Amino acid sequence: MISVNTGTSARSRIREALVYNIKRIKKAAGYNNDISEIFTNRPSLDQMKLFPSVYISLENEKIELFERQTSTFKTIQKNMRVVLFIMLYDAVDMAVAQDKIIQDVEGVIGNHFGLPHPDGECTCFTSQVTDIVPFGDKATKPKGGVIITLNVRYQQLRQDPTHKA
């Protein structure tokens, strides 16, 4: 069992890892889209002017295993709900645009073991897509989008959230 002092909370490192991985969605890398903007603070719809735009919302954390003794470190395992609000612009076929962005997001961060951080460290055990909600219709055309919910599982030291365990 190795404990690493990251200097920032597990929650912040997961946010950084999500931004890092979503930035990798580029056509040049084999994806269907080039992500234009990523927000980690809630934007207004007017602020989301470039498409596709992604707002990352870290939501509630739940302790899965309250306390477990691993070597000499007391760790907790957590589940965190993450919501990606993705705005799209497509004048031709919104359903196809939604399918392509879902494929891209699932390819880079959904249903994976681990979530790489820019420093090369892994930030979690798993990131798993749990819900996908497309939105937009003829009334909102050409704008629409998709809301993707993830469950991120990770572990940290109980007494110090800057240590991942």
Total individual domains: 1
Task: List segments where confidence is low: pLDDT < 50 over at least 5 consecutive residues.
Answer: 1-6
Question: What is the 3D form?
Answer: elongated
Instruction: Quickly give the structural class.
Output: alpha+beta
CA-to-CA gap between the ends? Answer: 7 Å
Number of strands: 8
Could you describe the largest sheet, including whether it forms a barrel? 8 strands, mixed
Helix proportion of residues, in percent? Answer: 10-25%
**Radius of gyration from the CA trace?**
17 Å
Helix and strand string, N-terminal first? EHEEEHEEEE
Strand content: 35-45%
Mean pLDDT: 84
The number of helical segments is 2
SSE diagram, text form:
Elements lengths: L3 E2 L4 H14 L13 E3 L13 E18 L2 E17 L4 H15 L3 E2 L12 E10 L7 E15 L2 E5 L1
